[in-house]
Amino acid sequence: MPSQKELIGKVYKMVPPMLEKFHKGMLGRVAVIGGSEDYTGAPYFSAMASARLGADMSHVICEPGAAAVIKTYSPVLMVHPYMRSEKSLSEKETIDSVSAEVVKMLDRLHVVVIGPGLGRDPAMQETCARVIQEARKRNIPFVLDADGLYLAQTRPDLVQGYEDCILTPNVVEFGRLAKAKNIDVGSEDPTKLCEKLAVAFGGVTIIQKGQKDYISNGKHTLVSDGEGGLKRAGGQGDTLTGSLGTLLAYRKAYHDKIWDHDDSLSKAETLALAAYGGSCITRECSRLAFKERGRSLQAGDLTEHVHEAFLSIIGEPTESKL
After folding, report:
1. CA distance 78 to 80
2. Is 32 within any annotated ligand binding site?
3. Which UniProt keywords are listed (predicted)?
4. Could you give the CA distance from residue 173 to residue 179 in angstroms, rounded to a whole number?
């Protein structure tokens, strides 16, 4: 298995330098889909992590009630109140019309993160299912977390075999996904287990979060075991999803060759590197935030350390003209 230094060196190659010739949007247009009436923090933390890691444009697509709240958190994010729960559908609205409105956004995006603050409402879930189907048709990478993973659990065909998909389950969510694929989680070591589940889903990339993060697409498995914080505050996984969103956008920029580079990394390799880099940055955010806050640490404390963690773990490309 390659060393952390070797892997991070490759992640570094994938990060675009900051050049005068670039225009707004070239370094990442990422959307987080979630944000229900009850959960407004998760999509904010995810989208802000994406922005702090350098995405040019960070969107949140959510319910109107959540949108009004999220807009008060920061003027940085573009918030779109397009999602609807069953009870918030008006007489003139249907799941078809709501889904069409959200799907229209896809042509403006490089990456979609689905799940933060989504909830289990059937209308919200069905809208996201349709977004996944359309994202696949357009070859848009997506990340599933939290209640987005419920879709992979209950409707595995939505993600089956789509290699530009990253699932980010914690231990409980991993168990549910494994059960959906008839895999016994108690029978094998974690490395093999993550690999086995990735194979069962047809080669999607899985980040099995825990004391160590196991990352596998079924063919190759990496272990991210950098030091993190000791406080297990809810919402830290949202920093991971937002970071993944931006790194996947950087991956697109790399393969689109928007700057001169040696083009030595394959698409399969850069997907794994995005997953690994996101894990390492999030663990470093947790370490830095815990060092500062101790047991009072909350999810929002990680947001303020995203750029510092990026500089510490990966570093600014030397071609940057800052």
Report:
1. 7
2. no
3. ATP-binding, Cytoplasm, Lyase, NAD, NADP, Nucleotide-binding, Phosphoprotein
4. 10
